[in-house]
Amino acid sequence: MIGAMFLTADELVELTGRRQRESQAQALRTMGIEHKVRADGRLVVSRRHVEQKLGVAAAGPVDVDALIDWSAA
């Protein structure tokens, strides 16, 4: 699913607080968020990269058995 791979146009506005592409690009550079410019001028930003930069990325699968104290059962 490619749509979930990259931020949507609305998400870019939400993230940067800007609507114009060059202003968005400047805001992304200021935040240290990598992005690419498509041939049509639109910005492409990896959802995963943003989550990692902002510290909200999932750490991966959680081993539930390791979290439960089975000795109390």
Index terms:
73 residues, mainly alpha, two-stranded antiparallel sheet, 4 helices, 2 strands
Please give a quick description of this structure.
The chain is mostly helical and 73 residues long. It contains four helices and two strands, in the order H-H-E-E-H-H.
Q: Which quaternary structure do these chains form?
A: single chain
Poorly predicted runs: none
The biggest beta sheet is recorded as: 2 strands, antiparallel
Q: Any idea what the shape is?
A: elongated
Question: What does it look like?
Answer:
The structure is a single chain. The protein has helices at residues 9-16, 21-31, 47-53, 64-67; strands at residues 36-37, 43-44. It is mainly α and 73 residues long. It has a two-stranded antiparallel sheet. The protein is elongated, with a radius of gyration of 18 Å. The mean pLDDT is 84.
